[in-house]
Amino acid sequence: MKLFTTVFRRKRGVVLFVAAFLFPLIFVVLAGIDTFSKRQKTTRNLLESNLWFSGRTALEQLEQQFNELEKGLLNDSSFYHLYKGDRLEPIKSNPYFFLIDTTYKILYPSVAEDNDNNLLVVDQNWKSAYKESMDKAKIAELSNQTYSAAVASYQKSLTLAQTKQQEALAIEGLARSYWSVRNNAKAIEYYQLLKNKYSQTINLSGHPYGLTAPLQLHVIGKQMGKEVFGTDSLLKTYQLMLDRHWLINSSCYFFFKQEYESVLEIDNSAEVPEFEKVLKCSQFLENHVIPLVKEKEKYSELNKTVDINSAYLEAKDAQYLVSFKKLYFPELNKTCLAGIYWNLDSIKIDIIPNLLKKLEMETSLEFRLVNNKNTNLLTGEPANIPEESLKLTFNNIPFPWELVAIQPGYKKLESDAKREVIIYGLLLVIIIALMVFAVFALMREITRETNSMLLQTEFVHNVSHELKTPLSLIRLYGETLLIKEDLPEKDQKEGLQIITKESERLTHMINNILDFSKIEMGRKEFDLKPGDLKKVVQNTLDSYRYHLLKKGFKINEELESNIPQVTFDKSAVEGILINLLSNAIKFSGNTKQVAIRLKMSKVNIILEVADQGIGIPEKELKNIFDRFYRVKEKSEFEARGSGLGLTLVKHAVEAHDWRIIVKSKLEEGTAFSIFIPVNPKKEEK
Fold first, then answer.
1. Can you tell me whether residue 607 is helix, strand or coil?
2. In this structure, how many other beta carbons lie within 10 angstroms of the beta carbon of residue 594?
3. Contacting residues for 449 by C-beta, under 8 A, at least 6 apart
């Protein structure tokens, strides 16, 4: 911090530069923000005045588009076709079409009227001769059971018949009489005639022969053990009934539906049959739509200019829109009421979104369809209507909703203003940050240079001290050998050994300095050759053993014999081992013990040098390989050194593509492990 303050004070020019640039910049930014705010208020006023006009115009356009769609559906030709046709075509749904006359009788979709007095109505229209013959035939068949007389009377009635229904009733009597006397061939012949020629003709019960005759043929065939009218044919007839092939009433439909399902042994269809759709539609018209049309007709008399009447209807927990108009049929000189009704859910899901999408593209507004609870009907979620919006009520269409018009310009205006303020703010922050970074980088560079100078000074001091010790010993023993010529041979040998070992130590220190110099200049080269790693480790340890023993170290030597040959630089490996052993000597306290291990793992050779010295603090481990670095942890133990040994070790290890790992604990010792892959492609993780 002291150095930081000193550097900062020395660079007053930097501070003045930052201040001179910063204050005008802040003024410009504040002025710009004030201008943005005023411009935002002016634009907001313009948008508010435009929203009401655009919103009303959009609503009118939406109603007009829907009315055009409605007119297209209420096309005259479609209803002429429905009236002139047999009215048995599939029901038109979503929206549902309906056609009623001025007496409010349903013409489409139609079902036969329930009439319990059908027999009386038919009897009143019969001619007397035909009626007498038919009565005689019935008495013979049903009361007297004289079937030959009944057949003769039915044959006569057939010749007297003047309508298709009369013919069918006589033929039905003939089929029934022949079946009673077990003349199955004749019975089958007449029932097939009823099925094929008189399919749409109804009997006295109001049942079409197209439904009754197939059942009779199926029963006869079953009694005979023959397939006269099989289940496949019966199933087709059943499906035709579901699809409204015959105009029958509801009681007749459900009667035959149960009969056919019983004979065919089938369950109710999962899909709603066409007839039941028509029946449901007809009931809905009777119970809900026609009363609404009657009520609307009263008021429509007061307004002759309205072509299409529309009304809102709520029934069966659902909402509907009913639209109808008067339609004149010239050929019949008859006026009817033609209309449609549809579920409002289908309108808001299938129609409104597309119309609103077009409006949004044309007006650049946003629209939401909401109910009285402010729920967005298009998403089912809360509408979240902003304050700057306009609620519009439908005028020409009785929708129970409101249209919310939102001016997206408000959001864009606010977002643009915020974006501009943020951009200006970011520019200011970036410029200030760049200036601060520049000042910081400048101070950091000055600090680094200062630290480098201090480290180099300390390095020179430490190296001088390190060199002084071996030089002093060499000089001392050299002078002793020169002066004292009568020294015992043992002392002379010891002196020469010390001179030799200290010379080697001095050489090692000088080599370290030279190697570091080469590394810094990028000129350090390694001579990689295959060799016996164990032999090099053993020789290096032997040459350094004197120093270890002299310092009182106990050596634990574990060198495995099965170490394969690897490629390495001999002098580099010697330097690695000597530097690690030198550190072990320097940083061992009272426990003087060093272990040198060379062993094989699965794919690596592991060279390990471990001591039981003072250890390295955990936070310092990441820095120990830096040049000139010395552990800053203060303790009673102090050791001098150049600070280059581990830097050279790291460089040599990486030059061989090896790995080095350090494990250390304070007061417990340090272990350096070098992983040397036998096969570089399979190095152990």
1. strand
2. 24
3. none
Q: Which amino acid is at 581?
A: L
CB 235 within 8 A of CB 263: no
Per-residue pLDDT for 426 more than 80? no
Contact 237, 210 (CB under 8 A): yes
pLDDT at 584: 86
At 511, the amino acid letter reads N
The pLDDT of residue 348 is above 80? yes
Residues contacting 165, CB < 8 A, separation 6+: 122, 201, 202
Is the entire prediction scored with pTM above 0.85? no
d(CA 495, CA 513): 27
11 and 439 Cβ atoms separated by less than 8 Å: yes
pLDDT band at 366 (very low <50, low <70, confident <90, very high): confident
Instruction: Count other Cβ atoms within 10 Å, centred on residue 76.
Output: 12
pLDDT at residue 214 is higher than 90? yes
The strand pair at 96-101 and 554-559 is best described as unpaired
Q: What is the mean pLDDT of residues 564-576?
A: 86
Conformation bin of residue 483: beta by default, left when phi > 0, alpha when psi is -120 to 50: alpha
**Residue 217 · residue 228 · CB < 8 Å:** yes
pLDDT higher than 80, residue 15? no
What is the spatial distance between Cα 664 and Cα 580, in angstroms, rounded to a whole number?
Answer: 14
CA atoms of 230 and 623, how far apart (whole Å): 97
Tell me the Ramachandran region of residue 564: left when phi exceeds 0, alpha when psi lies from -120 to 50, beta otherwise. beta
Beta strands 669-677 and 604-611: pairing type?
antiparallel
Contacts of 396 (CB under 8 A, 6+ apart): 63, 67
Separation of alpha carbons 592 and 611, rounded Å: 8
Residue 606, H or E segment: strand 604-611
The whole-number average pLDDT for the span 186-215 is 91
Identify the CA nearest to 593 among candidates 582, 601, 585, 583.
585
**CA neighbor of 451 nearest in space, from 622, 630, 616:** 630
pLDDT at 8 over 60: no
C-alpha–C-alpha distance, residues 132 and 207, integer Å: 23
Q: What is the C-alpha to C-alpha distance for residues 102 and 62, in angstroms, rounded to an integer?
A: 32
Rounded to whole angstroms, the Cα distance separating 401 from 314 reads 14
Highest mean pLDDT among 113-117, 368-372, 492-496: 368-372
**Hey, what are 644's tokens?**
């280059």
Considering just the CA atoms, what is the radius of gyration of the chain in Å? 56
Q: Give one word for 657, left, alpha or beta, with left for phi > 0 and alpha for psi -120 to 50.
A: left
pLDDT surpassing 90 at residue 169: yes
